[in-house]
Amino acid sequence: MFRKQDFLAHYHKRSNVESTFSMMKRKFGDSLRSKTDVAMVNETLCKILCHNLVVLIHEMFELGIDPVFWPQRAYSCDHEILGSGGALSAN
User: Fold this and answer.
1) Cα–Cα distance, 34 to 15 (Å, whole number)
2) How far is CA 32 from the centre of its chain?
3) Among 5, 24, 48, 68, which residue's CB has the most CB atoms within a 10 Å radius?
4) For residues 59 and 65, is the Cβ–Cβ distance under 8 A?
């Protein structure tokens, strides 16, 4: 007897991977310009990174998400000032 649920779970994963590859190929082209193996890997990783950023930004605007990249601190970015002798010191 076939395990239909297991099959469908794996097929769905494959479907997602195929869709992602298709999106990347449409967006960035289906060929690499690099000549060496290391450069090809780096180019592929850069394409994947760019694709993930595009998807993230799209979903931010689509869902109205206001991103928080780091927690707010009690002081501002300009908390360091030049002290005596040109050394940096805190307020």
Assistant:
1) 28
2) 20
3) 24
4) yes
